[in-house]
């Protein structure tokens, strides 16, 4: 048995590295064609603070930096300069999570994790005076989410290593409509929500 008393600590710290893939969910006013989203793989890095509640429950704070890029394709355009908008996002992400683990099985322990989070998008262009007519796609700066996932703790001789997969779903609308209410880019969009998948590797 490695690190036999590790989980008995009231508080411990760690860090994580990982990958992400973000998407958008759009709510449309009329059925005039979908906005296409070309997704890419981004990266995550951050810190972990863990508060032990009992043998099976932990409260975790995992602030991190998340970078990703999405390309949007708007229907109805033949010119690529009008059709395509690049959305590069740099999020400062603040999840507060409840980790529910099983009984430890030798040197590993499966768990479920879930909670709420908020983010600040440093690349949102929310204060830009230009909109899509000038080539700028704007988003709101602050977003709320709920998160659900699972992972496995592996107890190694000198640290605990935990790969995990988590789904992240926005609760708040992120769309900033164009200045023109008849904009061909945003006039048919009612709401826009981010959703994503995080794959994190934690070291505690």
UniProtKB/TrEMBL annotation:
Residues 9-174 form the Outer membrane protein beta-barrel domain. It comes from the Bacteria. This is PorT protein.
């Amino acid at each position: 048995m490695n690190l036999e008393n590790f989980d008995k600590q009231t508080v411990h710290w760690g860090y994580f590295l990982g990958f992400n893939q973000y998407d958008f969910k759009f709510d449309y006013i009329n059925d005039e064609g979908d906005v296409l989203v070309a997704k890419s793989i981004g990266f995550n890095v951050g810190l972990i603070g863990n508060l032990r509640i009992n043998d099976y429950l932990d409260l975790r704070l995992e602030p991190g930096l998340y970078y990703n890029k999405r390309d949007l394709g708007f229907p109805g355009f033949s010119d690529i300069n009008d059709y395509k908008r690049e959305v590069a996002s740099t999020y400062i992400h603040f999840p507060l999570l409840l980790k529910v683990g099983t009984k430890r099985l030798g040197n590993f322990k499966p768990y479920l994790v879930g909670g709420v989070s908020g983010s600040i998008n440093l690349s949102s262009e929310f204060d830009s005076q230009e909109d899509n007519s000038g080539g700028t796609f704007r988003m709101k700066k602050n977003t709320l989410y709920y998160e659900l996932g699972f992972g496995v703790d592996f107890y190694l001789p000198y640290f605990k290593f935990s790969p995990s997969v988590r789904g992240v779903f926005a609760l708040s609308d992120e769309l900033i409509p164009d200045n023109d209410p008849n904009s061909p880019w945003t006039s048919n969009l009612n709401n826009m929500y981010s959703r994503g998948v995080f794959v994190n590797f934690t070291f505690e």
